[in-house]
C-alpha cells in the first residue's frame, strides 16, 4: 500500500535518521490496518510523515578509491535528489570529530580551510556533483571523508568515501652458497605489506620470514629458504611469488655455482 515505507523498513540505510520506533509503529498500523480501521486518517498522516522524512534524506552515491602514494587522487559524491542545495562541504573523518576541509556555494565559490591550502580543492564544483582532489597524496591523506549537502529546509544529507594509498612492490631475489646449505632470499617492499611465497621442489627446506615497517609507510618483507642439500639445486629454477593488492608478481632465478 505504501511502497516508500516498505522500502525504508527493508532498507533502513536509505534514510538512517528516521527513528526506528516510529517506523515500527507505522509498520504496525500498516499491517494491522483492519484492527485500526477507525484510525485510518491518522494512519495515513503518520505514513505520509514517514515518507517525507525518508525522502528528505535523499541518496548520496560515493565510491572508495585506491591511488598510488605521492600522486593526485580524487573522491566523488553525487546527490540523487531534486531538492535545493545551498552549500557543499567536505570533511575528513577523525576519531574525535570531523574536520572541515573545503566548501562550495554559489555565493562564495570554493573556500579551502587554511590547513588544507595548496593540498586539496574541489575541482568539479557543483551543488549535486562534487569532486575533492588531492594534488599530491601523503600518508596523512589516507582515510575516510564525508561530503555534506546542506538542503534548503531539510538539513544536511551526507555520504562517505574512503581513500586508500598504496606503493607498488619492488622485489629482489638472490641466493648464496654455504658449506652445508644454500640460502634463497626474496625481499619485497610495498604498501600495504606484500605476501611472499615460493615455488620450489624438494625436501630439507626451512623457511623464515621477517617484516620491517618504514617511516614512509611501506613495509619490507624478507623470506629466506635454507636448503640442506645445496648441490641438488644447481641448475634449477626457483620462483618467488609476491602477492600485493590481488596481483601476483613472479621473480625467477636459476641457481648456478658460477661466479
UniProtKB/TrEMBL annotation:
Boundaries of every Ig-like domain copy: 70-164, 169-256
GO molecular function: cell-cell adhesion mediator activity
Gene3D superfamilies: Immunoglobulins
Compartment(s) where it occurs, according to its Swiss-Prot or TrEMBL record: Membrane
Any one Pfam family match given in the protein's UniProt record, by short name: V-set
Membrane topology: Single-pass type I membrane protein
Cited SMART domains: IG, IGv
GO biological process, one term: regulation of immune response
Record carries keyword Membrane: yes
Name of this protein: OX-2 membrane glycoprotein isoform X3
Species: Trichechus manatus latirostris
